[in-house]
Amino acid sequence: MPALTTAPPPVKTPHGGPPDKAARFPTALRRNLTAHGFLVGAVLCFAVFSWYPMVREFLLAFQKTERGTSTWVGLDNFRTVANDPAFWQAWSNTLLYTALALVLGFAVPFVTALVINEFRHGQGYLRLLVYLPVMLPPVAAVLLFKYLYDPGYGLLNELLGALGLPAQQWLQDPDLSLLAVVVASTWMNMGGATLIYLAALQSIPGELYEAAELDGAGLLRKIWHVTIPQTRLVLSLMLLMQVIATMQVFVEPFLLTGGAGPEGSTTTVVYLIYQYAFNFNNYGAAAALGLMLLVLLAGFSAAYVKLSRAQDD
Q1: Which pLDDT belongs to residue 312?
Q2: Judging by beta carbons within 10 Å of its beta carbon (0-12, 13-18, 19+), is residue 273 exposed, middle or buried?
Q3: 3-state secondary structure of 265
């Protein structure tokens, strides 16, 4: 015989009726007070450290500040930036850096993830090995590559000499300096992307590969017809993030080549912003160039998302 359960008696107000909304409100407020506190803290942090700088940059782009006094100058800051001889070179170097970084920094992590995914044993050690450069401080990692690129005693030139090849001026040659920066940046940042790709690969059902093998598909065909379609969403997201990150590169060229590089070969848009703000004390021009970069990246992101949705439909 099933046991009888007794429902708890309803809570009554002093007048004998059920509790009204006014009586339940303090209890709900106390229950959610901690969550509201964390939410207010997060909003304040975003407001102080993210939203206020963006609004301030937008205002500075149309102002000129002298001796603590700001005056509106309209589009003068944009004209100053556009007439700078380094303006177009900085954009050209930034776009070239982004293109090279997509060839190396986008493809190499994906190929590395494919290789690691084929190992049945030791994947944990391989993941740790790939992610180790990300855990290094950026300055330490860049200085390591500066030692490797040294024209006198650098390891790369020692290897070239052992192979009977001539030594190279990796960071002093205008034709090689930007590529050297891309290689260093790829090694420093590929660990995170590799782990994301590896997680996406391990979520692909094995039945798809078995069906492809029954149809006679080789390794490359399985990658093209199974792996890439199944990871297309992750690849699209990583491509967008890669473009946004590489267009804002600063640390690697600044530490490896001093920022500008030989004949301005590694001058990027963000380094030019740094020059305007901290070397020329022209915060209006720096804000104007930063606003240009913001508009370009926002437009690219919007167009990319729209095209991705159109392909999905």
Answers
A1: 67
A2: buried
A3: coil
For residue 214, the model assigns a pLDDT of 83
What are the CA-CA distances from residue 143 to residues 109, 139, 188, 202 (Å)? 22, 6, 12, 35
**Residue type (1 letter), 296:** L
* Kind of pairing between the strands at 63-66 and 69-72: antiparallel
Give the separation between CA 226 and CA 113, rounded to whole angstroms.
Answer: 15
The pLDDT of residue 227 is 87
Contact indicator for 142, 188 with CB cutoff of 8 Å: yes
The CA distance from 60 to 78, in Å, is: 11
What pLDDT score does 90 carry? 93
Model pLDDT, residue 21: 57
Rounded-to-5 percentages of helix, strand, coil across the chain: 70, 5, 25
Looking at residue 143, its amino acid is L
Query: CA-to-CA distance for 214 and 201, rounded, in angstroms?
Result: 20
d(CA 195, CA 191): 6
How far apart are the C-alpha atoms of 61 and 284, rounded to whole Å?
5
Read off the pTM.
0.81
245: nearest Cα among 306, 179, 192, 311: 192
Q: Taking the chain (313 residues) in consecutive chunks of 10 residues, what is each chunk's mean pLDDT?
A: 50 51 64 77 85 87 81 89 92 93 87 88 86 89 89 86 88 90 90 91 86 82 86 88 90 89 90 92 91 92 84 66
Each as own residue / partner, the long-range contacts of residues 196-199 (CB below 8 Å, 24 or more positions apart, any chain) are 196/234, 196/238, 197/109, 197/110, 197/112, 197/113, 197/114, 197/231, 197/234, 197/238, 198/113, 198/116, 198/117, 198/127
Written as six digits, the tokens of 27 are 């209890």
Give the contacts of 190 (CB within 8 A, at least 6 positions apart): 105, 108, 109, 112, 130, 133
Name the residue type at position 297: L
